[in-house]
């Protein structure tokens, strides 16, 4: 599976920073970090790093930096990680997500396809370390039951072709041959064999284990309130009274990343989008692929449970579950897979996705020297996590962050 660099460049040029003032701000933050790397080379070749947020966007770069010899500590506000990463279904579906929109594959979609290519190696690394993550490389299957569904399949096919993800049109009989439990009302299907899924809760455990094996640590119930310069370093003051000091700070607290004093106006550029989900008891495991239509997505775990999602509620930041919404999701899934109609509901929950105002991740240095953001990934955080972590680590350590870095920098919002 290749990354279509030529297609990506067209969008990247459109997203380049053209304003002289913004360019100056962008380079001031980057020059600050490069200056620290050059003038204090011994110290900043392996900086002390504090990460605010114990989800994928915090733990993944934390583990990578610890493996590179940095002293890394993750601060998680809750007793355990219960944010967007924990709540997610675990789909690794950049083409299927691209098909949700009305336009062609965009920069985030291309970035997602690039990151998907990293997942297979990471799944093997987790497994070799005894940390299984329910890696299921069985592809995605999109289903159409009406004209709108057929149009969605065509959009998704165009996106998948642009991303080199090898879509395959399926007749109703072919779709039923692939997934016999599908409703016989299906008009057409689209298989994207390269897509996959994981269990995010197992990935969180694996990342924390990787971090700890490299000498890093996670401190729970540490809610960061304020970041401030302190001598030649940075200091975090937490609500519980703890004070931590570091050379670099990563903001990875989801939609709340901008609510910490000292990070400028980041909060203006992040919005919460709530999503409700449920798990069904499916001892016969009626499906193998990740299955989607406009009513619901269906993510089999292969262990007698199937995940159904999800609502999309912009502006909502609570974790309350509403019975009527859960019933609608269950009914929507059963319309696609009739065998799910009588499946017992095991549990339901809600999470809050962090969305930036332009739909792109926010990755890179902020105005306060030494502070970096890794947030705003919205629905694509699970698939984009390994590539985001690699990009951020390159920025922090003074390496080349790669092709996508300019499109995702906070400087596009005048944040540095």
Structure description:
There is one protein chain. The chain is globular, with a radius of gyration of 21 Å. Helix 4 runs parallel beside helix 10, helix 4 crosses helix 12 (381-397) and helix 7 packs across helix 12. The protein is of the alpha+beta class. Strands 4, 5, 6, 13, 14, 15, 16, 17 and 18 form a 9-stranded mixed beta sheet that branches. The protein has helices spanning 5-14, 20-39, 41-44, 56-67, 84-87, 94-98, 107-128, 147-162, 172-178, 200-213, 323-336, 381-397, 405-408; strands at 48-52, 71-76, 91-92, 140-144, 167-170, 188-192, 196-197, 217-220, 224-230, 233-238, 243-246, 248-251, 270-281, 290-292, 297-300, 305-309, 313-314, 344-356, 362-365, 371-375.
Question: Can you give me a brief rundown of this structure?
Answer:
By secondary structure, the chain is an alpha+beta fold. About 35% of the residues lie in helices and about 25% in strands.
Helix/strand structural class:
alpha+beta
β-strand amount: 15-25%
Helix content: 25-40%
Average of the residue pLDDT scores: 89
Calculate Rg over CA atoms. 21 Å
Specify the overall morphology.
Answer: globular
Number of helical segments with 4 or more residues: 13
Question: What is the CA-CA span between the terminal residues?
Answer: 35 Å
Report the uncertain regions: 1-27, 34-42
How is the biggest beta sheet arranged?
A: 9 strands, mixed
The number of distinct β-strands equals: 20
């Amino acid at each position: 599976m290749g990354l279509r660099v030529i297609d990506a460049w067209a969008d990247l040029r459109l997203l380049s920073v053209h304003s002289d003032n913004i360019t100056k701000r962008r380079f001031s933050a980057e020059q600050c970090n490069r200056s620290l790397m050059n003038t204090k080379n011994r110290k900043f070749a392996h900086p002390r790093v504090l990460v605010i947020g114990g989800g994928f966007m915090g733990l993944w770069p934390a583990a990578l930096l610890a493996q590179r010899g940095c002293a890394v500590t993750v601060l998680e506000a809750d007793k355990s990680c219960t944010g967007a990463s924990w709540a997610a279904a675990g789909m690794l579906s950049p083409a299927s997500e691209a098909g949700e929109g009305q336009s062609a594959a965009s920069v985030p979609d291309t970035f997602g396809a690039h990151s998907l290519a990293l997942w297979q190696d990471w799944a093997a690394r987790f497994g070799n370390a005894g940390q299984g993550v329910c890696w299921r490389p069985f592809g995605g299957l999109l289903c159409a039951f009406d004209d709108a569904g057929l149009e969605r399949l065509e959009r998704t096919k165009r996106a998948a072709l642009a991303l080199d993800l090898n879509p395959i049109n399926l007749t109703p009989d072919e779709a039923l041959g692939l997934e016999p439990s599908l409703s016989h009302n299906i008009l057409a299907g689209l298989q994207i064999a390269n897509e996959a899924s994981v269990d995010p809760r197992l990935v969180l455990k694996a990342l924390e284990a990787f971090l700890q094996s490299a000498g890093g640590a996670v401190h729970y119930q540490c809610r960061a309130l304020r970041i401030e310069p302190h001598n030649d370093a940075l200091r975090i003051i937490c609500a519980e009274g703890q004070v931590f000091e570091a050379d670099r700070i990563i903001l990875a607290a989801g939609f709340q990343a901008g609510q910490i004093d000292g990070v400028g106006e980041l909060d203006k550029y992040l919005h919460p989008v709530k999503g409700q989900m449920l798990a069904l008891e499916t001892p016969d495991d009626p499906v193998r692929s990740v299955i989607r239509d406009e009513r619901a997505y269906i993510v089999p775990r292969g262990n007698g449970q199937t995940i159904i999602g999800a609502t999309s509620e912009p502006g909502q930041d609570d974790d309350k579950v509403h019975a009527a919404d859960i019933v609608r999701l269950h009914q929507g899934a059963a319309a696609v897979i009739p065998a799910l109609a009588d499946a017992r509901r095991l549990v339901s929950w809600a999470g809050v996705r962090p969305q930036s105002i332009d739909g792109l991740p926010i990755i890179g240095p902020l105005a306060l020297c030494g502070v970096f953001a890794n947030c705003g990934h919205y629905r694509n955080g699970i698939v984009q996590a390994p590539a985001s972590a690699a990009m951020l680590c390159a920025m922090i350590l003074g390496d080349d962050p790669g092709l996508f870095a300019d499109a995702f920098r906070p400087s596009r919002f005048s944040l540095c």
